[in-house]
Amino acid sequence: MNFNRQTSHTLHEEHRANLDLLGRAEQALARAPRGDGPRAPELVKLVVALARSLEQDINRHFGFEEGELFPRMAEAGDGEIAMLLTEEHEAIREVAEELLPLTRAAAAGTLDGAGWDALKRGALELVERQVAHIQKEEMALLPLLDDLLDDETDRRLAFDYAAG
User: Fold this and answer.
1) Sequence-ordered list of residues with C-beta below 8 angstroms from that of 160, at least 6 positions apart, any chain
2) Is the pLDDT score of 39 beyond 80?
């Protein structure tokens, strides 16, 4: 998709990178054996990347949308969409909160079989929720920003987001 605003373009690029990571994680975790924990270095690396995404990108990305974009959407009459996206953020954060200790243990090599099974279930749930959420944002939020933001606001938001 082509977007006219820097803010939309930046979020779109993050979405693409996140979808790539989520897709790789889904494929690798779906193929991984049950109850054995991550043994392959590539799988551990992927779990660490997923944890980093959970720790940094979700809070930064969601916080920006909730603090800067959703209020503007509500003011423009699109509050129901903003509320739905916020509810989805909360659901994703809940799954991420459960996953983080498991991903850290996997990265440290201390995750047992039951923990590995819980990590797989949680990660696959996260993938499902996030992919659906990103699709909604790509179809609803990002196109709205082209009309919602003027050039000056767009530049400021894109700069602030890049600096944050």
Assistant:
1) 68
2) no
137 is written with which tokens? 């944002």
Q: Hey, how many other C-beta atoms are within 10 angstroms of the C-beta on 7?
A: 26
Confidence check: pLDDT of 68 > 80: yes
Tell me which H or E stretch contains 158.
helix 151-163
pTM of the model: 0.90
Tell me how far apart the alpha carbons of residues 44 and 47 are, in angstroms, rounded to a whole number. 5
Residues 133, 127 contacting (CB under 8 angstroms): no
- Residue 2's φ and ψ, nearest 5 degrees, are -110, 130
Q: How far apart are CA 118 and CA 29, in angstroms?
A: 11
- Distance, in Å, from the CA atom of 38 to the CA atom of 14, rounded to the nearest integer, reads 27
Check residues 89 and 105 and name the one with the higher pLDDT: 89
Q: What is the pLDDT of residue 50?
A: 84
Amino acid in the structure at residue 85: L
